[in-house]
């Protein structure tokens, strides 16, 4: 996604550096446009180092590219953080005394302004009127937090935490996609298509009582299947362990282990137009299965459980297609990732996309209180053909619509040759 981050002249400008880091670590291209006053707080070199892109500050720079118009036209999201009382007033009046003002006048994408100022400025009737006017024009203005301000002051006007701003921005983009872009459901884009969707977790038996499993609820896979059905597709739903019911209207195949899921995919995917691997597949299983319940030892020693790898179903489906077998021409994988000191969630996701060889990978960050079992989620869709990543956030049914809309775009109109046949 192409983002313009506008920074105006407030002390909170230093916190926007943290916001910029969140955006770039999520894999987005960010052009920072600071006002001249903002550079008194954070210098141009900092913005260029964190964004990895040149920073323009003057309307008359890069005139040959019509830069003052191009930035706004090409942006898919504009965030102004912090937005001072002066910048809100200028935006409300439609003034463009600097490059950022020109961006705001030419942008047709979602715009989020994040005020930060002293309480008296925020509550002044002029600022209140300017905010109301901007909101009436469709610009989102985030209410500031209340707390410690510059000096000894406290009260409303505090710059919100970068995590809150980024979550609001992603939600704004998702809302924009839902309202401004036709979804697959609205145009019946999958009519006549056959789609296989896997969902839920797999369970690997240790003995007749115990198993190794994961926290997947199956909610996202069900949402994808329901969105595909609503778009006119014939859906085969392969479900593992789930806390929700399978989608009505789909052909349902129930499985438990990764091996059973592997067999079901290899049996039902050939001849389908698309395979969506939303299931949370176990990477390992017990190397030995105990025919009876494993008992506690009398001496108090711990049992030793040896694990072995399970089949890589996503990779094998792609490999089977490459070998000439009749697998779907469009295969979508899911990457439930956790970042660490070596790489971000999206960096791990990009590596997985390249390694698996599928057309699209839906990446999200997981954990005990993230994604698994929850009704809401945030994902980023990465594409093998190099197109810009697409973010989606909201409840899982809304994200399912966004995923199926991208799937329809990959498939194209019915009758187009699949990639495996080209």
Quickly give the CATH architecture of the largest domain.
3-Layer(aba) Sandwich
Largest sheet: 8 strands, mixed
The CATH C-level class name of the largest domain: Alpha Beta
**CATH topology call of the largest domain:** Rossmann fold
| Proportion of residues in β-strands | 15-25%
Mean pLDDT: 88
Helix content: 25-40%
Low-confidence stretches: 367-371, 415-422
Overall radius of gyration: 25 Å
How many H/I helical runs? 14
User: Per the principal axes of the C-alpha atoms, what is the gross shape?
Assistant: elongated
Q: Give the full name of the CATH homologous superfamily of the largest domain.
A: CoaB-like
Whole-number total of structural domains = 2
Q: What is the terminal separation in angstroms?
A: 29 Å
Main β-sheet, spatial strand arrangement: 12-11-8-13-16-17-18-19
What's the count of strands? 19
What structural class do you assign from the helix and strand content? alpha/beta
């Amino acid at each position: 996604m192409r983002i313009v981050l506008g920074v105006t002249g407030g002390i909170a400008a230093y916190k926007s550096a943290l916001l910029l880091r969140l955006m770039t670590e999520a894999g987005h291209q960010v052009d920072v446009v600071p006002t001249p006053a903002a550079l008194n707080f954070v210098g141009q070199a900092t913005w260029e180092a964190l964004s990895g892109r040149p920073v323009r500050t003057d309307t008359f720079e890069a005139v040959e590219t019509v830069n003052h118009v191009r930035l706004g036209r090409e942006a898919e999201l504009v965030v102004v953080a912090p937005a001072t009382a002066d910048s809100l007033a200028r935006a409300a009046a439609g003034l463009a005394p600097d490059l950022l003002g020109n961006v705001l006048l030419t942008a047709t994408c979602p715009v989020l302004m994040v005020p930060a100022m002293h309480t008296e400025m925020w509550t002044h009737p002029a600022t209140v009127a300017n905010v109301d006017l901007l909101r009436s024009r469709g610009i989102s203005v985030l209410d500031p937090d209340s707390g410690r301000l510059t000096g000894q002051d406290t009260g409303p006007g505090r710059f919100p935490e970068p995590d809150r701003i980024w979550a609001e921005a992603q939600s704004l983009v998702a809302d924009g996609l839902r309202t401004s872009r036709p979804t697959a459901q609205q145009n019946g884009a999958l009519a006549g298509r056959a789609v296989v969707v896997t969902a839920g977790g797999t369970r690997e038996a240790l003995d007749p009582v115990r198993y190794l499993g994961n926290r997947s609820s199956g909610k996202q896979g069900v949402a994808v299947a329901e969105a595909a059905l609503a778009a006119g597709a014939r859906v085969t739903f392969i479900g593992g362990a789930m806390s929700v019911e399978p989608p009505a209207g789909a052909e349902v195949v129930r499985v438990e282990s990764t091996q059973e899921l592997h067999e079901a995919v290899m049996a039902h995917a050939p001849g389908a137009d698309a395979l969506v691997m939303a299931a949370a597949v176990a990477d390992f299983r017990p190397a030995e299965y105990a025919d009876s319940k494993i008992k506690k030892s009398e001496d108090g020693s711990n049992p030793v459980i040896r694990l072995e790898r399970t089949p890589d179903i996503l990779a094998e489906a792609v490999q089977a297609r490459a070998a000439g077998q009749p697998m779907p021409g469009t295969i979508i994988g899911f990457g439930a990732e956790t970042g660490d000191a070596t790489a971000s969630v999206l960096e791990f996701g990009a590596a997985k996309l390249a390694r698996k060889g599928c057309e699209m990978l839906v990446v999200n960050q997981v954990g005990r209180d993230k994604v698994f079992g929850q009704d809401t989620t945030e994902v980023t869709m990465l594409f093998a053909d190099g197109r810009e990543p697409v973010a989606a956030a909201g409840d899982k049914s809304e994200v399912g619509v966004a995923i199926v809309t991208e799937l329809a775009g990959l498939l194209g109109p019915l009758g187009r040759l699949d990639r495996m046949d080209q």
